């Protein structure tokens, strides 16, 4: 029997979300089908309120003729507060099949109206100094009658809180309520605590620490940025089987004390004295007679919003791989991976034993643990034992970025640490993993792992620049350059929706966008930094088809473009103000962080880019007047750019790699000027021995610009370089995350300046976007977002490995592109999810050679196919496909002395070159593009039309030349 079913129902990107406050939530689903080419033709969606059996519905769409299956907006009656809504879907497809109803899913509303009865409370200053360092404990006992049917806690706190009920921790979220623009927006959380309450006596407890709200941020001794009082705000709603309810809220009847946490800071770590624990403080019948009272506290909070981002969790446990003593005599744990989170340890020791953990990312060249790059962050955890048997501890309100942990004071450590007593807990926003990439080159695979680990470490409620030193801020440039890579690797819809709302909240009245979001740094907008206001919402829309995020952010996007427009005397150039420029580029002057590319050049390019995005967003939203206005503005910016920065002959005035990259990437030049720009970019790479010298502005786009400009093989050589500067240089130096600097660790083992040297900085991990889209070939038609129309177009010309595979879990389902090359055959596997179509390119294939599933191409499952100069192009519907064709006119491996590197080039072209440039050549052909390197005799050259003797003679001659070596990186 044919299979057609609905799976993976989500509401606002999430499965069964609890406590949302969106008035018109959107529903999405995926379709599973065993027939190729399945498309949805119609759907029916039903919603009930508190009725899982659907005996009555509050909204039934009826049969809607549509292929839409993502972001279907609820259109029923106004939602009620604190109510669970169940929904289900069925569809009809293009084979006249009707699916069964999906499994039932639900969402539950939080507090939609002014149902808040709680008060902000903090300890009474008469009993506890409100500015004291120890964390606060707040508690209240209450009694409940029998017949509890449901219970929810709604609440929040400032800075960070943990919630307890009857002795148990409520939920497993960490760092609640998250970091927002606190004066404008504060998230509250919803917890289902039905199973934690009991008839009779109950007790609730809250532990409060400084966190981002009032802790040390940005600069040393810079505290109380948002406020100087911790406070809690909670209420419990209990429903009984007789239909009655009871509400318990924070008020001045609560009691307060201080916690065993004597000190806890985001940057500095935590000090915990287990001797001060008060056993049972979150349980009923605890004696709190000596506790202080609480007072009502006025708080500068303007809006409470339901949890928007996915929560932060412990997502993985890492066991240390080694313990050793450094030359300096320190006992150090090696986690084997630069991670972000905390160490949990177990110990049995006499009362008052002090154990200290100090966290760092790397060892210096002498083998000693290196703390120099932490700036003033201490990353230190201290634990004082209570001496009552086995004790287990992990810090509550801090996180560290580290691979190595210096351990002091652990009992018996002079005889070696028991590794089984330590575990690393990896912490980040618990986003769904959606992307994967792997290939036949182990160094490139390690690079991909580094990219993913860097994202995990820096996506902790906000997209931070680094997780270890005294910074850890939401730098806008880092986020915008990395977002295409980020949204491939993990589902970032809720993550970036929340962060964009903070960007909009912190945007200045004149449209200026601060350097970091949430804004704790100040500073005025810089090109490529403030452009996060346009680039990120547009990328979220492109990835998920989310028009709502565009609508929400449109005024912010427009305000940013208009802010730029008002700068300087010429509204079509941005040549005034402060700019970071091509930050950390290697072509910077001595003692400068700013690359050589002219800052007004960069600023004007990004001005155009943001204007183009704004125009396109206006078109999506049907804002025709703005489409006309910003189309005109874009044309004028490009016209002025060419007048100001491009010579009449097409030469860019800024002769840097980055200038050429962004001019190409953002379509600032056209015609002959575009051809020249691409050619000169390629020449700049050749002249630099295929090494980049770009910074934060140029690096994210350099490989894309090369492939787009017709120099894909140069982009490949750039990736495969493993000496300084390159991505693989970091890998060969032992990196397990991406570095901030190309030479964070220099070739002699010394470090870049302590002033700014992160070993977990994801910006340069943006190369991942090119690996997934170009090398593996998964992309979309930009006019049809969310991968509704997929493009599979792998580029393996010049690639130095034999296979690559990428898979992506889109809003519609799994997309796969996998290719494998041998001397004889090319094999390409593709998976396309139901309710989508795809255009596939089989590079350098001929129709007569192509087999699909061991059969010749035939119409039917393959919608259309044609042979082009690039290869065979096909359009297909959903399903799995396996293409095979002869490599006769395609790509052949040539082995070099470095057996890890395998290069591919059109074989016939290679033969023609050799025939043309026989011994005695005096002029280098274009193919001879790198410095000479000794070659293995090409006896391994399979199916060669050349004799081995002739190859030897040619190679001997070529190896004498300074300018080149045949087919070698």
From TrEMBL:
GO terms for biological process: carbohydrate metabolic process. Residues 432-775 form the Alpha-L-rhamnosidase six-hairpin glycosidase domain. Residues 777-848 form the Alpha-L-rhamnosidase C-terminal domain. GO terms for molecular function: alpha-L-rhamnosidase activity. Its EC number is 3.2.1.40. PANTHER family: ALPHA-RHAMNOSIDASE (EUROFUNG) (PTHR33307), ALPHA-RHAMNOSIDASE (EUROFUNG)-RELATED (PTHR33307:SF6). This is alpha-L-rhamnosidase.
């Amino acid at each position: 029997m044919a299979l057609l079913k609905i799976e993976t129902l989500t509401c606002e990107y999430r499965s069964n979300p609890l406590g949302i406050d969106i008035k018109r939530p959107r529903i999405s689903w995926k379709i599973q089908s065993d027939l190729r080419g399945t498309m949805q033709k119609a759907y029916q969606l039903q919603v009930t309120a508190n009725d899982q059996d659907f005996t009555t519905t509050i909204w039934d769409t009826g049969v809607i003729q549509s292929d839409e299956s993502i972001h279907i907006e609820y259109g029923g009656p106004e939602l009620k507060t604190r109510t669970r809504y169940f929904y289900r879907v069925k569809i009809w497809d293009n084979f006249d099949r009707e699916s069964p109803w999906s499994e039932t899913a639900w969402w539950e509303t939080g507090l939609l109206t002014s149902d808040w009865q709680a008060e902000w409370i903090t300890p009474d200053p008469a009993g506890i100094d409100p500015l004291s360092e120890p964390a606060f404990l707040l508690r209240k006992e209450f009694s409940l009658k029998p017949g509890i049917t449901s219970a929810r806690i709604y609440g929040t706190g400032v800075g960070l809180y943990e919630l307890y009920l009857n002795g148990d921790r409520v939920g497993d979220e960490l760092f609640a309520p998250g970091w927002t623009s606190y004066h404008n927006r504060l998230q509250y959380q919803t917890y289902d605590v039905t199973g934690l309450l009991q008839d009779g006596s109950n007790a609730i407890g809250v532990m409060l620490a400084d966190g981002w709200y009032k802790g040390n941020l940005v600069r040393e001794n810079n505290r109380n940025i948002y406020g100087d009082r911790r406070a809690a705000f909670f209420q419990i709603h209990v429903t009984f089987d007789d239909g009655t309810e009871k509400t318990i809220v924070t008020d001045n009847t609560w009691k307060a004390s201080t916690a065993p946490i004597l000190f806890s800071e985001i940057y500095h770590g935590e000090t915990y004295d287990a001797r001060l624990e008060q056993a049972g403080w979150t349980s009923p019948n605890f004696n709190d007679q000596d506790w202080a009272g609480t007072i009502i506290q006025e708080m500068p909070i303007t809006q409470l919003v339901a949890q928007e981002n996915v929560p932060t969790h412990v997502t993985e446990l890492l066991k240390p791989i080694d313990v050793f003593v450094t030359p300096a005599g320190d006992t150090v744990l090696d986690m084997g991976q630069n991670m972000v989170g905390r160490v949990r340890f177990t110990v049995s020791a006499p009362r008052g034993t002090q154990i200290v953990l100090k966290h760092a990312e790397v060892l210096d060249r002498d083998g000693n643990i290196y703390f120099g790059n932490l700036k003033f962050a201490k990353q230190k955890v201290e634990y004082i034992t209570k001496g009552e048997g086995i004790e287990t501890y992990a810090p509550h309100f801090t996180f560290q970025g580290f691979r190595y942990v210096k351990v002091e004071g652990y009992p018996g450590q002079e005889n070696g640490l028991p590794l089984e007593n330590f575990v690393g807990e990896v912490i980040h926003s618990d986003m769904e993993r959606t992307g994967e990439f792997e290939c036949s080159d182990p160094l490139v695979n390690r690079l991909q792992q580094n990219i993913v680990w860097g994202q995990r470490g820096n996506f902790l409620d906000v997209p931070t620049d680094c997780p270890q030193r005294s910074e850890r801020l939401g730098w806008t440039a880092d986020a915008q350059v990395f977002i295409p890579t980020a949204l491939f690797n993990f589902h970032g819809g809720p993550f970036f929706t929340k962060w964009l709302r903070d960007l909009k909240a912190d945007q200045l009245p004149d449209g200026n966008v601060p350097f970091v979001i949430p804004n704790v740094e100040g500073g005025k907008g810089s090109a490529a930094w403030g452009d996060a206001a346009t680039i990120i919402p547009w990328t979220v829309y492109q990835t998920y088809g989310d028009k709502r995020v565009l609508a929400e952010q449109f005024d912010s996007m427009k305000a940013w473009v208009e802010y730029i427009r008002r700068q300087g005397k010429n509204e079509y150039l941005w040549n005034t103000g402060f700019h970071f420029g091509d930050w950390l580029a290697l072509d910077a002057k001595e003692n400068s962080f700013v690359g050589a590319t002219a800052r007004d050049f960069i600023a004007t390019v990004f001005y155009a880019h943001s204007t183009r995005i704004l125009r396109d967003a206006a078109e999506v939203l049907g804002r025709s007047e703005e489409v006309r206005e910003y189309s005109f503005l874009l044309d004028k910016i490009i016209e002025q750019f060419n007048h100001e920065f491009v010579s009449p002959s097409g030469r860019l005035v800024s002769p840097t790699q980055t200038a050429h990259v962004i001019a190409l990437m953002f379509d600032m030049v056209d015609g002959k000027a575009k051809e020249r720009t691409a050619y000169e970019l390629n020449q700049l790479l050749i002249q630099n021995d295929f090494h980049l010298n770009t910074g934060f502005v140029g690096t994210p786009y350099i490989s894309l610009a090369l492939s787009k400009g017709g120099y894909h093989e140069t982009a490949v050589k750039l990736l495969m370089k493993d000496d300084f500067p390159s991505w693989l240089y970091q890998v060969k130096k032992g990196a397990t995350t991406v570095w901030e600097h190309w030479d964070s660790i220099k070739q002699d083992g010394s470090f870049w300046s302590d002033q700014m040297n992160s070993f977990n900085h994801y910006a340069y991990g943006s190369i991942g976007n090119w690996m997934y889209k170009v090398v593996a070939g998964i992309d979309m038609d930009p006019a049809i977002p969310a991968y509704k129309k997929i493009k599979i177009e792998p580029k393996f010309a010049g690639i130095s490995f034999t296979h690559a595979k990428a898979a992506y879990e889109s809003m519609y389902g799994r997309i796969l592109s996998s290719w494998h090359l041998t001397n004889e055959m090319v094999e390409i596997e593709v998976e396309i999810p139901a309710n989508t179509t795809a255009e596939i390119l089989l590079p350098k294939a001929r129709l007569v050679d192509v087999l699909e599933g061991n059969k010749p191409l035939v119409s039917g499952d393959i919608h259309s196919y044609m042979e082009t100069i690039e290869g065979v192009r096909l359009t297909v519907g959903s399903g799995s496909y396996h293409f095979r064709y002869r490599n006769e006119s395609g790509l052949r491996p040539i082995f070099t002395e470095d057996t890890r590197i395998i290069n591919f080039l059109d074989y016939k072209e290679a033969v023609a070159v050799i025939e043309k440039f026989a011994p005695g050549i005096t002029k280098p052909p274009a193919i001879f593009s790198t410095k000479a390197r000794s070659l293995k005799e090409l006896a391994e050259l399979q199916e060669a039309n050349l004799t081995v003797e002739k190859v030897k003679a040619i190679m001997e001659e070529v190896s004498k030349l300074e300018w080149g070596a045949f087919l070698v990186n």
